[in-house]
Design brief:
4 copies of one chain form a homotetramer. By secondary structure, chain A is α/β, with parallel strands linked by helices. In chain A, strands 12-11-7-10-9-8-15 form a 7-stranded mixed β-sheet, covered by helices on one side. A 6-stranded parallel β-sheet of chain A has the order 3-2-1-4-5-6, with helices on both faces. The two termini of chain A are 26 Å apart. Chains in contact: A-B, A-C, A-D, B-C, B-D, C-D. At the A-B interface, strand 7, strand 9 and strand 10 of A face strand 7, strand 9 and strand 10 of B.
């Protein structure tokens, strides 16, 4: 029952998924790896019990010893590999973004629809976080009434030098976009970006912080504070406001210290620490589904929708706060909600 | 050292201040009352140790047994009474709003400037709340770096039948406007209102909830969620986001109950419960200042600024999210910050 | 309706009550003061609007310009002054302890019973704290079922040089004793002291920390951790465990700071900060009751019971953990529960 | 690198470990099972990919297709199986208790010492819980100074009909005993049990709740409240009090709900929910160590010490609160602290 997984891209994220597949999760082994840097791929393969390094992603996807594929390469290459997996009829776990343009995402959706079955899962790991799952559960149980607003905050202590301006939308807020769509069970139809005073701790080339505001088809309003140089920690906040109550992520906390005139708890250092467990749960669910020949989790449609919303966000970022209307193509039946469409919420 | 206070308007708020002056606070006695309903004024006076009922506010303000005045009458009458107090050279505590139009506020400012001394304190009680004082203290100590955003939420379980649409700005958000100006020590220069889906629990004539967004002169962005029919309680939330940290109101809590699979704490029922203590501290500070011939607390300028911002908010409420620019007149020297301009923050 | 209050003892606590009576509370004025240091009494009187300094407590109690008395002198003198007040038929607010020996307390109880009315209130201010009131309210509403245990912690950052060993029971835990009796509505019948490792930050002459354990007549078990040199702050914790739930004091908090990888809230510096509001509420209730000729709050019986329990605690402190049985005399009818016997819990 | 694990005992716990080994964790497969009910063993084996059912534990331990053993049978059988594993030189994960008598534990220790290497890990899963790990980390970093006390509470909503009186010590408090030894890095030398009023919701045959108090060699005092019919949930509390601060388990919480005048979070339903993750981490660590030929985690010595302390606790439970002194044999060098002796705390 162990599936053979090929991994495309063995940079930081790819190696982390390889570690997970090899040492943490059940039911999978890494059988092949590839990378734009073939020497790096060879080096990684050498350290694994039973993996070979292949020259190209295309070769890996069609390899007979690869049952399913993890795509963790550079974003612009995702389309090619995901399409190849669909053509090969193999389940693929693709790190976000699904693809970097709306058109590329549509080509993936088209191919998957033509294939007649879901083969793609996109790596929106927040859907597997205990806190968001508890929020979803509360909303769906009717505990707060109809949701009307979602306040989200996405705070990074700092960003690396290669972080360019659009990334605050495409790499940072994209997670808030997906989790908003999922929590509210609704599509986004318009977006704005409001820009406060620039943080003196952010590079001059960055618009930081921002407030990314969007509206859903049923009229919920979502505001996302993105502060990517806030120093104090990696802090993800969220509260959905309903007609008769609200539900919010709790403070991350393991233990409460009392010392030096304060009681206090820790804030995570980075997304790895904060979402460590969600990544594990996410990939295990994918393995289990792939082994059973099922699809699960965030779909190509979710990847497509997130990309379209982020495109609107980037367009809105420098227009002085104007509302940007966006629209999605009609949703294929393949992506209509079914029991297997997301993590089970008990 | 006991000062004689005349109270104009003995409705719910007026009677609550009379109770406070008579039974809770130190250094004041109610010597005269008046009301548009003179019988009600007489009835209230009868229940007090040493108060007379007078026919008009004008009469009360000039009465020789009145050292200082509390104005708690209907908003549109505030201008007349406050101006009369300034003319009489008597300290006046005026419930918000200072006056209902920008022009009326300006006339008060002009009169006070002409009088050459501050005589007016406006009843923005949040500045005396322990939670907001701790936030202010933290910000001013540099604990979060330069403030960039302020997220505020103002939630009422329900509103009374006479609550009309503009009141969500003029009566509800006005407190968030004042506390934002005070916390950020900055003036507001533009406003927008974003309107999500209507709460089915709010009357059809109300725009509820709203997100009132405004910008300060130094570029801080403030978002205020106002939800005035949210059922679950009276809940005031606030978080100021700085360059290197944030500071937020804590959950109101006195005791934590563990029962029935939950740990939980209480949410206040209404603003009286939530700000009970702030009202006491506020009015005691005014009494002490009046007895000492000093002025204190939120000034006519603060009342004027709040009214101008709320005017912009009302204009913005139905314009589809457009930004409304606003401007204040030049600030007279009388209102420039001095040691006595607000509650002391240690 | 303003009552004239005489204050015996103008040290730190006495001066704090004078400040409260003069500048914070309603319905009282300080008309006379006395002190073992008569010059200090004169100096304090000079700073007050209408107070005279008297040579002795006896003189003060019988002075015609004194309606009611606050006793804030050294513990061993309390008996004499309280008895004098009872003889004069004047209401007296006596700081804890009521008296320093069981026999002295009994003489006070006898005198009050002979007088046929309650005249004494003992300064156990915790009964007026919002947190404890909420706990009491929850217990009495049946929210946790029958109470079975009470875990209490009493932590001081440090103690002054004059703090001798018995004070950890008589001055520190005495508050936990009273609040346990009040929360559980029960008398204490046996006590033990368990002694862990000595804190290296406590003086060698002190037994610190200790765990003071006692049992009530109905079988509830109370454990009090007293740590009086714990450095980090003044922290009072309490949780009552019932048959189907628990209720605990919440963390003191006004605002939550996020900075430097922590979210945190403040711990009070000392008992003044922690119980500031409770002291105000307590003394206002006494003034109101005294003005109305009623008695209120913790009674002589409560003072007597606390002293008897502390005597047992001191005896138990060095006996290696043996159980010390204690017994109270029969409770006079005067102290049987009535509507006016404590702070009203709504 | 996959190890073959044999499981002895396929009741509730055994089946849960089988699920974990098969579907959750990495690096192990279940190759053989046995049970006192051989039909149940056969039924379980049938549902697994590659497991056989064996007639006896002895057969399973020596089976050539079994690399390592999980013992999850009835407590009194543990000694036999653990000794067999030691004799066979195979790593064994034994659910608590290591054995049901002090003498049996000593025989295991003797055998392991004679074997010259650690082969036994005892299932004290709390050492793998995030909360306790954070507490340990804080203590070891010096964040609270020398630990002086540990307050623990162990609350179960209810217990099953077969739960007899000694189980509140042997099955419930045994976890608090182990975690106290681990957190404080100290041995226990004396114990007492204080018994409050009986909960009317507990069976008459049970002593519930109790306060189990014990002392460590270095003088720390530990108090464990065990309330095993408290209805409201499964709630594990803990706070270590040091010389200059304290560290406590945080409230379990995933999301905070605001509704119906309360903010609230969930309390777990049972130990499975509360320690789900700790069980996973614990067993993965054992698999990894077993695969590498290393031992890890709580040792036979820890199992022995816990049994000796629980024996003293049972003896103390009905002696009216007397102190029971206990002593351990000299600790063999094999169990002296080394880098591999417990979960790594970073």
């Amino acid at each position: 029952m162990t599936i053979n997984v090929g991994v495309i891209g063995v940079g930081m994220i790819g190696q982390d998924h390889i570690r997970r597949l090899t040492h943490v999760l059940s039911g999978a082994r890494v059988s092949a790896v590839t990378d734009v840097d073939i020497d790096r791929a060879k080096s990684v393969a050498t350290g694994l019990p039973a993996a070979k390094a292949l020259q190209t992603g295309a070769e890996l996807v069609t390899d007979s010893e690869v049952d399913a594929v993890v795509v963790a390469s550079w974003g612009p290459t995702h389309e090619e590999y995901v399409l190849a997996c669909i053509e090969a009829g193999k389940q693929v776990f693709c790190e976000k973004p699904l693809a970097t343009t709306r058109e590329a995402c549509e080509r993936i959706v088209d191919a998957e629809v033509a294939a007649g079955k879901r083969l793609v899962m996109v790596g929106f790991m927040r859907r597997y976080d205990d806190g968001y799952l508890a929020m979803k559960e509360t909303i769906e149980s009717g505990g707060i009434g109809t949701p009307l607003m979602f306040h989200s905050a996405h705070r990074n202590p700092a960003v690396p030098p290669h972080y360019v301006n659009d990334m605050i939308i495409n790499d940072t807020c994209v997670h808030d976009v997906d989790v908003a769509r999922w929590l509210l069970d609704d599509e986004i139809v318009a977006a704005r970006v409001l820009v406060p005073r620039h943080s003196s701790l952010a590079g001059d080339h960055l618009t930081d912080p921002i407030m990314f505001v969007f509206e859903t088809a049923r009229g919920a309003l979502v505001d996302v504070e993105a502060s990517v140089n806030i120093q104090y920690g990696y802090d993800i906040r969220g509260e959905v406001v309903g007609e008769r109550g609200t539900v919010a992520l709790a403070d991350s906390n393991r233990a409460v210290l009392r010392s030096d005139r304060r009681w206090s708890g820790g804030v995570p250092e980075d997304w790895r620490e904060r979402f460590l467990r969600a990544y594990d749960v996410e990939l295990q669910e994918w393995i289990d589904a792939a082994a059973a020949g099922r699809s699960t989790g965030p779909s190509s449609w979710d990847g497509y929708a997130a990309t379209v919303v982020c495109d609107a966000g980037v367009a809105a970022m420098n227009n002085g706060g104007e509302r940007v209307v966006l629209s999605l193509r009609e949703q294929p039946d393949l992506y209509k909600p079914t029991a297997g469409a997301g993590p089970t919420v008990e």
